[in-house]
Design goal:
The complex is a heterotrimer of chains A (363), B (275) and C (289).
Chain A lengths: L2 E10 L2 E11 L4 E5 L6 H9 L6 E6 L2 E2 L10 E4 L11 H10 L9 H14 L15 H14 L4 E5 L7 H18 L2 E6 L2 H7 L2 E6 L2 E6 L1 H6 L4 H6 L4 E8 L2 E4 L2 E4 L9 E7 L4 E4 L8 E9 L4 E8 L5 E7 H7 L6 E6 L3 E4 L12
Parallel strand pairs in A: 3-8, 3-9, 6-7, 7-8
Antiparallel strand pairs in A: 1-2, 1-4, 4-5, 9-10, 11-12, 11-14, 12-13, 14-20, 15-19, 16-17, 16-19, 17-18
Helix pairs in contact in A: 2-3, 2-4, 3-4
Chain B lengths: L12 H28 L3 H9 L1 H34 L5 H7 L2 H4 L2 H11 L7 H4 L10 H26 L2 H9 L4 H30 L2 H7 L9 H10 L3 H33 L1
Chain C lengths: L1 H4 L4 H31 L3 H10 L1 H34 L5 H13 L2 H12 L6 H6 L8 H11 L1 H15 L2 H8 L4 H30 L2 H7 L9 H10 L3 H32 L15
Helix pairs in contact in C: 2-14, 3-4, 3-14, 4-8, 4-9, 4-11, 5-9, 6-8, 6-12, 8-12, 9-11, 10-11, 11-14, 13-14
Amino acid sequence: MGIEVRNVSKRFGSFEALKRIDLSVADGELLALLGPSGCGKTTLLRIIAGLEFPDSGSILLNGRDATMSAAGERQVGFVFQHYALFRHMTVFENVAFGLRVQPRAARLPKDKIRERVMTLLKLVQLEWLADRYPSQLSGGQRQRIALARALAVQPKVLLLDEPFGALDARVRKQLRDWLRRLHDEIHVACVFVTHDQEEALEVAHRVAVMNAGGIEQIGTPEEVYDRPANAFVYSFLGDVNLFRGRVQSGRAMMGDLEVDAPEHRDAPDAPATAYARPHEMEVSRDDAGPQAIRAEIAHIQTAGPNVKLKLKRADSGEFLDAEISRDRQRELNLRTGEFVFVKPKQVRIFIDDSVSPPLNYQI
Amino acid sequence: MTASPRRRVLPGLSLSLGYTVFYLSVLVLLPAAACVIKAGSLSAGEFWEAVWSERARAAYLLTFGASFAAALIDLFLGLLIAWVLVRYEFPGRGLIDSLIDLPLALPTAVGGLVYANLYSKTGWLGQYLTPWGIEAAYTRSAIVLVLTFIGLPFAVRTVQPVLQDIEPEAEEAAASLGASRWQSFRRVILPSLYPALVTGFALSFARGLGEYGSVVFVSGNRQYETEIAPVLIVSRLEEFRYGEAAAIAVVLLTVSFCMLAIINLLDRWSRRHAG
Amino acid sequence: MRVEARRDPAWVRWGLTAAAVAVVGLLIVIPVIHVFWGALAAGPAVYWNHLFADPDTAHSILLTLTVVPVALAANVVFGVAAAWAIARFNFPGRTLLTALIDLPFSVSPVVAGLMFVLIFGREGYLGRFLLDEGVKIIFATPGLIIATAFVTVPFVARELLPVMEAGGTDEELAALSLGASPWKMFWRVTLPNIKWGLAYGIILCNARAMGEFGAVYVVSGRIAGQTDTMPLRIEKLFQEYNLAGSFAVASLLTLAAILTLIVKTRLEKRVQWASKSETSVKDLEALKR
């Protein structure tokens, strides 16, 4: 049941948008398609919806082959990035649309339609806007109406294309929580596309990280964040510090930093990079041993819940990012220009390949 | 089941495209082809004789000459009117602005009728010109006059939007550097209007080339003197000399296409300049 | 400084304004007034007679009212179909098709009429065949309709194209994904979104069709009481030195023109809101001949 994507490929002209994608979404699951612009996530979503057709591969919806079905036959609810509300219809008429265009035989009587529309409007807490026009609504309200409209025809699958992309940060946060709670109530297979990793990690049951037409990793938010499959996933999901060096027979040597890398025990001598998150960097005034790196504090930013430090390595001049708690800063009383010692508490080591992400990759 | 990439999401392509092509073929392509074929049925000599006879040459000269003169006059009038409408405020400005489009909306026969009557020897306006010895109706001047009427909206409406979008900073800079209003106009504003002016001229000119309805009223249609090319075509038609009529028509068609291409290029050029 | 630098001296302002008003008055206002004066000079009763007591004139009014709506309807259907195909799809020859639609703009109406005579006339390519079948096109109403339709082909299509392109496909895709059939999508979503552009195109098309002279002149055969539309009737009355009569008919057309201007001005704002079209130079070739 749910959604099955099998070996789907799609190209636009000479551009390969999707390369042999395999994906399963269980009934009732909430999956995020996460990735940078151009990775193919929206194309994949639209293919599932029937708004594009794949060059090869198949789509199964609830066990049935829907690859060549028209969008209207798939019982899929699609919420567009810019809402696509019918601007000449009221909110009520928008939500009722799917019910009104059903063939006469299957159509609900008028009062039943009205009932369902009002229930949905209450569900999205906007029943008081029923007679307004889309142009009179705020962005967040439009988004919720678009969702209500998609839900009106009781789809088996719900697809959302960057649902909160066009909204400001605070509304985005509110709607994120609201979506998660809504999904708990309605319980359909739901896929949403986003380029915001915070959003994906917060809302989804599982996250599929995509890049350049392929899926890099699928897993729960914990899995993709704590056990990233490769450097791209690691970098995409948060800020990184990079330590370049080599790996040989299970031991990684990155300048002063030397760590055991048991996962690369069998690797021949190869260039590799160690990744550490800013909040995994330990900062102290005292020399903490051979692993510690001496660095000058270039910039301190205290806005927000933590203190962000930009440090310049004394040996190479490269920059590192560290994040420490406010308490720690109060303890250390750091100032710009001072020299401190930084040591990563934990690193992930990835062997360099041609697909290395840019430095400190973050959207 | 493998997918086919040719499937389209939005419906109706074959229906809409099919009908469109069918309609255009029947209404536009076939008739145009018929004209060319008919003209082609003449021998080279006959074709040349039809297209380049003395009478035809006189007609071309008049058609081109009158359209050119009218477009030129419209150039100045168009600039004047556009300037006043954009830059100045006065009671009735909105009304005047709407009236500019009247020559577009008015049937050409009405225009021709009115102008013929106004400027006849005893007409409202013609009577003032007679003592000066100016005979307005049934002369070439009448043709130029009525073509000016027809072409006016084109000249105004091409210049107006450009004038509206001119940035005030350039003029202010000129003023701060000591330029007089006239200098400002001549050296700063006018050059930025050149593309629009040329385009407006081309449009009025092209419009005048094909004009028939109004001219037949005011010109008297005297061969060699006040006969425009379209009138010549009708004349040939009435004499059942279809081939010759088609030949002259082909000449006019070719000129029209060239004008269309030129206007397209000018449009693109002026957009790039406006940038 | 801002106002001063752009302000012309008072004498220039008033002088130019007076000149512009004078030009408009001379070229446009006086002729319009003259039409109504010429029509009503002998009193309303005579005016009425000229229009409706004269059987040929009455017929010409009826004929115009028959020919124009048919040509208009044909071009509306065409315009919607063409705009849909061109705005929503990519296909080989798309640019050529768009250019082809513009063709009637650049063709002299007399040439247009000639083309149809060459096909449908008594000695035309299809004419002989059709006459044998008893179908009369040239010198009859069908010919008038075809000629009028030809010269007004571009109007509706060219107004709808930018409106459809600017509107985007999202709403239509949303309708499809909600289960609407193609026709339901078209009636409930597409049409309401283009209604202002459509209205505007119809107004322009209508004005042009009513005033068409050259093409109709050629295909009609000028048979009074049978194939004279209103503009042709004006010319015939003029030739017969019946000035009052021709002014009477002209006054009706002038009224229609003024009405067109009023409706057009009202619609312009709506259309500009509906589409991000900047005034293309070719949009100006609106109503010709």
